[in-house]
Amino acid sequence: MTNVMINGEPAAADVGEDLLTVARRQGAVVGFLCDGRGMCTTCQCQVIAGAGELTEPNEVERAWLSEEQLGRDERLACQARLAGEGPVAVVTGAETIRQQLRDVLSAGVSPRAAIQLAGLMTGLGAGAAQVARGFPMNVLRTWPRFLEMPPHLPGITKYVVDSGRVVARAIQPGAGENAAESLTARPVPIEDGSREAVGPGADI
Ligand code: FES
To answer: Which of 30, 98, 117, 174 has an alpha carbon within 20 to 30 A of 168's alpha carbon?
Structure first.
């Protein structure tokens, strides 16, 4: 068992599991359009603590994410696996967008809402541009993953069930409060060159 927090909530996980499997089992708000085949980037997440407890970014992540993003410990949850016993803390991109959207809606009609909306749209635009830049070469590169993981009925059923759970969680009032705290944690370098988080999310 490892010590993992997904969106500010503890999750049961074993060494060797990928973060997407852990997040889906927990019912966290996380994207997985391609069902973990490394072809969509909707599972992108921010590691805020314990980046050294994960496997090194693989060729799929290097295809989709820039060096800068990898340097900020952004990962694809379906590719990053638990290599150590933690602690590891992660906030998913889908949860971050959900938080931003909630802030926009709660601000009503106001200058603050306009600024928040602009920030949200800028972030979404940058994400869409990143994915668009990668097509079609990255899809061609990751196509073997589709052959390695061909669709099958139990997998499709689980996909539908997990998707429904994510949507239900995303619209649940009060959900994600712990993730909001985790988002304030920032990874900072420590002496041995690894990274640790400071702030509320570091307390795992
Ligand atoms: S779920 Fe599609 S890239 Fe991870």
So the answer is: 117
For the whole model, what pTM was predicted? Answer: 0.80
What is the rounded distance in angstroms from the CA atom of residue 38 to the CA atom of residue 133? 16
Q: Domain locations in the chain?
A: 4-185
The confidence score (pLDDT) of residue 198 equals 39
E strand or H helix at 147: helix 137-148
Output the ligand 1 site: residues, CB below 6 A: 20, 32-34, 36, 38-43, 76, 78
* 73-95: pLDDT as tens digits: 999 999 999 998 879 999 999 99
DSSP-derived secondary structure for 57-99: P-HHHHHHS-HHHHHTTEEETTT-BB-SS--EEEEEHHHHHHH
